[in-house]
Amino acid sequence: MSDDKPSWRQLRQRLQQGDHLLGTFVKIPTMHATEILGGLGFDFVVFDQEHAPLSISQLEIMIVAARASNIAGIVRVNDPTDGNILSMLDCGAAGIMVPHVATRAKAEAIAKACRYRGGHRGFANTTRAGGYGTASFAGHMDAQDREVVCIAMIEDVSALDEIEDIVRVQGIDAIFIGRGDLTAALGAPSMTSAETHEVVAPIMAAARKAGMPVIMLSPDRKDALAMKAIGASAFMVSSDQGFMRSAAQSALKEFAGPMV
């Protein structure tokens, strides 16, 4: 572990402090991308169970790679049931991200699934998260409730009806504003369009008022700066697939044509 890089276990604390954080999506079912990203100094990765073919057994290996590489491994779950969330956390994930949280009731349900005290997470300290039984009952509960990150994705226009309540739910540590789904629902031309921003702005305003951290996926630094100006502190850029594609495209361009 680098002496100057905070522990992956501090992600929740750093989110709450408003630290500048950078992450990316990981979609390829392998540990290598996660190890590389951790070594480079990224703060977190989001394993995309929603939009990538990631099984629980594959995710477990990726979570281990994240812990070993000192990068917080969050799972974007495709099934926000208590059982699936529990499996990911017991495997040692730093947290979970849940798509389409459009109501206070859903926000409360996922928050409770992530917490022991004040929630209803099924208890087991014999898991990786509990050090295979080395953590005491109270110690394991304290550590998990202190460290596990619960992120609600706001990506439905209907969420605006309850956004003031959603961002105040105890146990939700941050929201991720899904501009992709919002843009598609609005029929807007891009996620940075004025039409999309009209929906994003009140979500941001509600989060600022409640002191809720906001995570944004940004296509470039200019957009990230614009999002930071209205309240975002954590950012995601591209994905392992995207990085591979852009690097390969750059190499192809550099080496294409006659070598004379």
Give your account of this protein's structure.
The protein is of the alpha/beta class and 260 residues long. The protein has a single domain, classed as TIM Barrel. It has 11 helices and 8 strands. The protein has helices at 11-17, 32-40, 56-68, 82-90, 104-114, 137-147, 163-166, 179-186, 194-210, 221-229, 240-255, and strands spanning 21-26, 44-48, 72-76, 95-98, 149-154, 174-177, 214-217, 234-239. An 8-stranded parallel beta barrel has the order 1-2-3-4-5-6-7-8, surrounded by 8 helices. Helix 3 (56-68) links the parallel strand 2 and strand 3 (72-76). The N and C termini lie far apart (45 Å).
List the helices and strands and how they pair.
Layout: H1 11-17, E1 21-26, H2 32-40, E2 44-48, H3 56-68, E3 72-76, H4 82-90, E4 95-98, H5 104-114, H6 137-147, E5 149-154, H7 163-166, E6 174-177, H8 179-186, H9 194-210, E7 214-217, H10 221-229, E8 234-239, H11 240-255
**Basic shape:** globular
The tally of helices reads: 11
Strand order of the largest sheet: 1-2-3-4-5-6-7-8
How many E-type strands?
8
Q: Pairing-aware structural class of the strands and helices?
A: alpha/beta
Distance between the termini: 45 Å
Can you write the helix and strand succession as a string?
Answer: HEHEHEHEHHEHEHHEHEH
Give the % helix: 40-55%
